[in-house]
Amino acid sequence: MTRRVLPYRSPSEDIVVASGWSLVTEDGEVPLPESLPDWDYRMDIRLRRSVQVDLDEARAQSGLPSGTALVLATVWTATGSNLSGPAQRVRLTGSATTTVVLDVTLSGADLGGLLILDTVLVLAERRTDARPSSPRRAGSILWSRRESLRLQGDAPQFPMAVIDFSRTSFPDDAAWHLQISGGLASATMGSLLLLVNERNLITAGAFENAGKPRLADRIVLSAVYADTARTMVEHALGTDEFAEDADFPEGSLGATLLSLFDRLFPGQSINDLRLRRSQSPALFASDLQAAVKMFEVSR
After folding, report:
1. Is this model's pTM higher than 0.90 or not?
2. Is 211 exposed, middle or buried (0-12, 13-18, 19+ CB in 10 A)?
3. What is the end-to-end Cα distance of the chain in Å, rounded?
């Protein structure tokens, strides 16, 4: 196991004793699995762990005065949505050994791909009186631990709504519609919205059962995924600013589309794909169908 070398004194690993994360379900707690095969974006994730911190030793070994405020925090990152954020933050000002129970709930709409959980013990605020070898900046890491959980649901990983298409401008009998708004620099989560027609009982039912889908539901979800991927690819290729050398902000629609291209067409250039789509649209449609592995629903 490698240990990060910090430019200041830091305590030994044993000043913090952390239990493993537990997944909190309706049936109780279970140890955090490697993956959740039936996860979908409507499934919030609740996690819990207990952490013991020897505050006196943490300060002493770091060269910090007694009583220095520390913070125990958990930060999450989701590779599927390109989003991240703080999950919980607990300020520690006592002495001796203290126990903290971290209990976090993450919104499924923000997640996707690999969920990375970083638990850290950091300096709470800047210390102007710190020794030269001691941490002094707020947020200086004294201890850290990383775990991950792979989310493998079939449902598209962005916001959706189930509505009656007869009350909209969409065709009454359409099963779904992917709405894309804003420019490529806009935030992904605010730019994409999957609308499902509640009048189409087969499609609406598949999303209702996305947590524990039947074979028929998996087939429907696979078709939705393939069509939404096609729509996103077509949208990207139809935008001149979408190119390999474009620098899109993290978490933006452009960055998400680039990630989608890398996953669907590894090793292929955007210009080549744009030409193929223009010159051989039928072949490009088949290439895209193969890339999204349409109807590959076995587990």
Report:
1. no
2. middle
3. 33
